[in-house]
Amino acid sequence: HGRGIALMNQKGGVGKTTTAVNLAAGIARLGRSTLLIDLDPQAHATLHLGVEAGARGGSPGAYELLLDPSIGVGAASVEARERLRLVPAQTDLAAIESELVSAPDRLTRLRAALAAVPEPERAEFMIIDCPPSLGTLTLNALAAVREVMVPMQAQFLALQGLGKLMETVSIVGRGANPQLHVTGVILCNHDAGTTHAREVVADLDAFFEQARSTDRPWRAARVYRPGVRRNVKLAEAPSFGRTIYEYAPGCPGAADYEALARAIVAEWDAL
Amino acid sequence: HGRGIALMNQKGGVGKTTTAVNLAAGIARLGRSTLLIDLDPQAHATLHLGVEAGARGGSPGAYELLLDPSIGVGAASVEARERLRLVPAQTDLAAIESELVSAPDRLTRLRAALAAVPEPERAEFMIIDCPPSLGTLTLNALAAVREVMVPMQAQFLALQGLGKLMETVSIVGRGANPQLHVTGVILCNHDAGTTHAREVVADLDAFFEQARSTDRPWRAARVYRPGVRRNVKLAEAPSFGRTIYEYAPGCPGAADYEALARAIVAEWDAL
Lengths: 271, 271
Ligand SMILES: Nc1ncnc2c1ncn2[C@@H]1O[C@H](COP(=O)(O)OP(=O)(O)OP(=O)(O)O)[C@@H](O)[C@H]1O
Ligand SMILES: Nc1ncnc2c1ncn2[C@@H]1O[C@H](COP(=O)(O)OP(=O)(O)OP(=O)(O)O)[C@@H](O)[C@H]1O
Ligand SMILES: [Mg+2]
Ligand SMILES: [Mg+2]
Prior knowledge:
The structure is a homodimer.
Chain A: E1 3-7, H1 16-29, E2 34-38, H2 44-48, H3 62-67, E3 78-81, E4 84-87, H4 96-99, H5 109-115, E5 125-129, H6 136-144, E6 147-152, H7 156-159, H8 162-174, E7 181-187, H9 195-211, E8 222-223, H10 232-236, H11 244-247, H12 252-269
Parallel strand pairs in A: 1-5, 1-6, 2-4, 2-5, 6-7, 7-8
Antiparallel strand pairs in A: 3-4
Helix pairs in contact in A: 1-12, 5-6
Bound molecules: adenosine-5'-triphosphate (2 copies) and magnesium ion (2 copies).
One adenosine-5'-triphosphate sits between chains B (12-18, 40, 42, 44, 132, 188-189, 228, 230-232, 234-235, 238, 253) and A (11-12, 155, 157-158).
């Protein structure tokens, strides 16, 4: 139906949330309807957009939606910006793993909720901000999308976690979601000038190249170029509850995420 | 006995491992016996030092030590550098939470192992590298030391997790370990030139100032100054299995971690 992307990386602090918010907002600003789902109990994407992280008894969000998909995505989301709806997260989400532990469909709750959205109400683009883990929340995201994109920093220790990430995608791809594949890596906080970053990117390129003639779910994946440069404006914007376009329109961070949004939309329109 | 420090922060990618390795190595290079314990299933500290992350059936490490403290810290550690012993981690550690779930002493396993070390064999300084979580492994670290230091980046979203971190320290401090306190924050990947960083540091200063006349376990805490500057050499060193002093002796990263090591030793000697 639409283009659904899970921004996933079990490593912390790599740029998932910064990318989720500014990519989703960037796509919405290009005139395309977008749904952003905050699946992280830290609720940083929710905070970043200046939306209240849900309190128990308040308006429903990701927690309520996973506990009872029948309440509907519409009821569990708010209009965060023009053409951008947000399913907010809340700290209660941390309890989801234990609360759903005996539910046979605990990994496809989000998929069920999205499947129930009437066609006219569906957003064209969907972005899911995952927590830094490979647990129930991330697995719900992986079952609910066709695509995975991996925000990461071009650093040696960041490469170490990739194997486990790809293995998780493979498991879901062989089981609950045969359509699932890795579309690419988004280089965040990128310092293209250093030899180290270039070497890590070369490693990534080679890793994807080797998969080209296989049946691995990353066989068509690539590193998106250029990366998103390090720009302190991107770290400041969340403290004002603003997207980078609202906070510092001309800055490198805004330019880089707008370029990424254009690329994501252009790829989709080309199909 | 000695100075025991847990480097803790449930937020990922903030500099725990980079600090653990280079601080421990820095202290050892000042002539002081040091024990570094890698409690992270990612085993990045172990990798950083060029030591094999333990394979099942190989020489014992943190996993075996937590499963059976009686094997002894000596048997579960290797001489990683002169005056620096390392208890290596291994991916098996990820299973510790479930394997110990019904053990009544599951949170004091590490403390028991350290208490059993004969006086002459004890290191003067001990550093524990914690995983990015507040689970069984981190709680074992908190029960085994007197001091917590929090590596973090001076960014808005990094401040959001501090409340939960402090609450966890309080809980352990009221329960298993009354001596536990937060000594300070170590600013990693620090960009002292930006207004944003200065504002976040000012927030941290104020947070600790407000606790001064209370009985909170961070009432004597402070932000260590100066921070550790961003320096790509620090990200490159682990890919060679080297400390920063071996990899790039003159660089800013080496200077900053050496200065921190000197400060940590000087504080101890002043008591
Ligand atoms: N390109 C960039 N330039 C400067 N700062 C950045 C950039 N990208 C992200 N940051 C900052 O780095 C920190 C980590 O980024 P972010 O929160 O997006 O990572 P994350 O992967 O979502 O983390 P978590 O695993 O905790 O969810 C944040 O403080 C963010 O503001
Ligand atoms: N001062 C610095 N300058 C440049 N790079 C740094 C600096 N400190 C840390 N890094 C790099 O940032 C990344 C994250 O650092 P590190 O692994 O020490 O964080 P961590 O808190 O231990 O992460 P985790 O939560 O995954 O254990 C690593 O690739 C590391 O090499
Ligand atoms: Mg995030
Ligand atoms: Mg680490």
